[in-house]
Structures are given as C-alpha cells and as structure tokens.
Amino acid sequence: MSSNNISRKSMVFKNIIWGYGNTIFITILKFASRWAFIHTIGVTYLGINGLYTNILSVLSLTELGISSAMNYSLYEPVAENDIEKIKSIMKVYKNAYRIIALVVSVIGIILIPFLHYFIKDAKGLNNSELIFYYVLFLFNTVSSYFVSYKYSLNNAEQKGYITNNIHTITTIIATALQMVVLFVFKSFTAYLIVQIVIQLIGQIVASNYLNKLYPYLKDKNVEKLDKETIKRLFVNIKSLMVHKLGQVAVNQTDNIIISTFISVKSVGMISNYTIVTSTVDTFLSIVFNNIVGSLGNLCATTDKEYQYKIYKIYDFVDFWMYGFCAIAYASLIQPFTALMWGKEFLVDFKVVILIILNTYIVGQRIPLNNMKAAGGFFKQDRYLPMIQAVLNLGLSILLAKQVGLIGVYIGTIVSGIVPTFIRPLLVYKPLFDRNSGEFYLTFIKHLFVVVTIGAINYYITNLVMSKLNWLTFLLSVIITIIIPNIFIFLLYFKTDEFKYVQNMMMKIFKNSLMSKSEREIIE
Predict the structure, then answer these.
(1) Residue-wise over 462-498: b if at least 16 C-beta within 10 A, else e?
(2) How many Å separate Cα 201 from the centre of its chain?
(3) Contact, 301 vs 79, CB < 8 A?
(4) Where would I find the H helices in 120-263?
(5) What single-letter DSSP state applies at residue 348?
(6) Sign of the torsion formed by the C-alpha atoms of 496, 11, 424 and 358
(7) What's the pTM value of the predicted model, to 2 decimals?
(8) What is the pLDDT of residue 371?
C-alpha cells in the first residue's frame, strides 16, 4: 500500500473520530435547547428561527459555487505542496468572499420591506420585532464570510477536525448560555445576541489559529494566478453557479413556502422532525464530507478503474447508512416527537413519510455528487439543478395552495427525481468510463430493499408501541437497530463491497490495539 493511500485513510479516520466526538456533545445540547425553546418562548418563535435561517440560506446563493470551485482548485497544489499557488488561490478566495459579504448585506437589507409577505399567522409578534430579529440573523450570516474562506485550505489538507473542534467548543458554550437566557429572560433577542457574540469570538479564534498554522496566508508578496488556472476556475464557477442556484431553490425554500402559504407555526412543527433528520445527517456527513478531500486527492493520483472501485464501496456504505436511517425514521420519528415535544406537535404521518423519502433520495445522491465534484466534473450537468428548482418551486407552491403541507413535500420529491435519474446519464461515462445502467439497477434494488425491510420493521415496532411510553420506545429502538441490519447483512455479506468494508474495519480494530511505535513501523 502506498504512503499516499495510507495518509488518505489516516486523515479520513482522524477527521471522522473527532467529528463524531464533537457532534455527540452538540446533539445533546441541541435537543436540550429545543426543549427549552419550546417550553419558554413557544413554537411560533421556533418557526421564525427556521424561516429566517432559510431566507439567509437563499441569500447565500451569491456565493455562486465559488467555495466548491476553490476547494477543487486547491487539491492539486496541496498534494504537491505548491505554497505559492496556494497563496494565489487563497487571495482570490479571500477577495471573492469579501464581495459576497457585501452583496449578501445589500440584498438582505433590500428584503426588509418585503418580510411580511413571507410570514403568515405570526401571532404575538409585530412587524418591528420581526425586522429586528431578521437584522440579527443577517449580521450573523455576513460576519461568517470573513473567516470561512480559510477553512477550505484546512479541508483540502484533510485537517478539517481542527476547525470542527473550534466550532464544537463555541457551539457548546453558545447553546449552554442560550438555554440559561431562555429560562431566565424568556427573550428571543437575548437568545440571538448570545449566538452572535459567541460566534464572533469563535471566528476570531479560528482565524488566528489558521494564521499560525498557515503563516504564508499573511504574506503580502502573492503572485497572480496563471491564466490557465484562472480560466479553469471561472469555467468551474460558471457551472457551479447554476448548481448553486438550483440547490438553494430546492433545499432552502420549503420553510419559506410553508410560512408564506400555510403558517409560520407549521414551520416550527416541521422543524421538530427535521431537527432529528438533520442531526442524523450531521453524523453521516462527518463520514461523507471528510471523505471529499481524500476523493480529490484520489482523483488526482489514481486511474478511473480504481476510482470506480472506491465509488462502489462509497455507494454501498451510503446505502446502508441512509437506508437504515430511513427505516428507523419510519418506525421511530413519530413516537419520538410525541414523547419529546408532545402529541400536539405531531403532523400527518403522510407528510412524515414524504420527508423521510426525500431525505433518503437526497442521501443516495451523495456518492456520485461527491465523486463528480472531487473529479472536477462540474460542466456536464450544470443545468439540472435549475430544472429541478423550477419544478420544485412551481409544484410546491401550486400543491401547497391545493392540498396544504403535504403538497410542499410532493413537489420537493417529484423535482428530486430529476437529478437522481438524469445526472448519471450525463456524468457516469466521463467520470468512470462506464455505462450508467449500473447506477439505475443499483438504485432500484436498494430502494426495494429499504421499503421492504422498513415495512416489516414498522409492523413489529407498531405492535410493541401500541401503548406508547419511553420503555416501549426504547425497546423499539433496540429492535430497529437489530432487525434491519441483520436483513442488510444477510442480503449483502457476499458482495465485494461488503468484504472490502469488513476487511477495512478489521484493520482499524487491529491497528487500534497496537502501540504507537508499532503503528509507526507499519506506516
């Protein structure tokens, strides 16, 4: 095994281990904070919180794919330790993000007179309060752009755990203080101010640390990027710009549509479900996001055949993780919501199933999307997100008016089918030099497996929780951990992908039992 390959795996696992440790602390505080939020200032404020988060996410489309394009452009110079080129790219990145901060500020301020059009039934809140809260959200978003560009270099070097640790510490402090503020003052204003102050402190700490880690970032003598690099960079940015517009229109608009056409309270109720799915996604993304830097290195140093082998393993792991989560959501998320927040916060189970289906489909797109980004294939499918966005907005708004909340998610799922089935036609051949038919067969087989096992598990856990309490819920959790994973194991244990993952896990386990000196000798 080459030293480069060993290094990739070592950094991936280091990032994953730190990421999980950090996320566990954040998750515990997040749910505690949610409980405090609901029981002190109410679900309407929770809806405002979710709505403004989404509005500012839409404004982030001004980034226009610069982040992904810059990350990709850093893989090669980082692998070759080309400091001068890294400095040149980072200077462009820094200037771009300052412009983005200015644009987001201007557009955000222009939106203020139109805020009331997006907020329906915000009982107990006047227009001045809504504007003030929005301005605090806007400031919090804009301030992040002055530091976040530096994280890309950290990620390209596969050292994302460093900034993740800083983020975790600031999040823990902020969340703990926010809970105190909620119980003592019952004030949304104080809640937001605490978040802003702690985030600013965290950004200053992160910036100073990264300056010490990469002292050349402060160099004044920086060469201009060569014309060829600039040309490639702008080609990728133009392609990613369309992707970004489409993705934001699809992923960040549901809350806005719900608040505008149904009620802002419904945004708060839905967020009690999405906090569960987003928390689990955070755990899963620790694996998948930390792999991206290694994928970039992989695509820069290996052939297509080996890249395809790694993709198949990546896709299998993704299926098992997201498939299991979809099964668990179907059986557990509704009773968990009833126990945690109260039965009055439950929404129609048909809506819940659609949220779960959308989460699964989005998850199944991750391996191909990440391989495509790591390989620099941004151009082939650049118009797909825009097509998806038009479908999503059109169908979700139309159906929200006709059938309410369920219509929003029908529109999201229908529009999500477009990239899921068309993207492989466009990128599979140039990415892997293979026929895309393999993707469709695998996707349909995986979906059938998830639905079948999910139905069996739902039937069993539904019987167990016929009388709902924490004891029957915990028993259902144990059943859900055991039954789906046994089924998946029995169906896939003979596959090459399973054997590869099994061997890799055994090596990790054996390596963990070795002394530090023994590991250094092997490496």
Answers:
(1) eebbeeeeeebbeebbebbeebbeebbeeebeeeebb
(2) 24
(3) yes
(4) 127-148, 151-156, 160-185, 188-213, 227-251, 254-261
(5) -
(6) positive
(7) 0.77
(8) 80
Q: How do the domains of the chain map onto residue ranges?
A: 1-238+271-297, 493-523
CA distance 152 to 299: 18
Neighbours of 195 (CB within 10 A): 20
Q: Which residue has the tokens 């412009």?
A: 99
Buried b (16+ CB within 10 A) or exposed e, 73-105: bbbbbbeeeeeebbbbbbbbbeebbeebbebbb
Which of 282, 250, 237 lies closest to 64 in space, CA to CA?
A: 237
DSSP per-residue string spanning 245-269: HHHHHHHSSHHHHHHHHT-HHHHHH
Give me the average pLDDT of each 10-residue run along the chain (523 residues). 49 58 75 88 90 82 62 79 87 84 91 91 88 94 83 72 77 90 93 93 87 86 82 71 66 86 91 89 73 60 77 90 96 95 91 95 87 70 78 92 93 88 82 85 95 97 96 97 96 90 76 53 46
The pLDDT, as a whole number, for residue 513 is 58
- Alpha helices in 376-469, H assignment, sequence order: 384-403, 405-432, 437-464
SS (HEC) of 294-306: HHHHHHHHCCHHH
Identify whether the C-beta of residue 84 lies closer than 8 Å to the C-beta of residue 219: no
Sign, CA dihedral 475-478-482-488, equals positive
Residue type, 161: Y
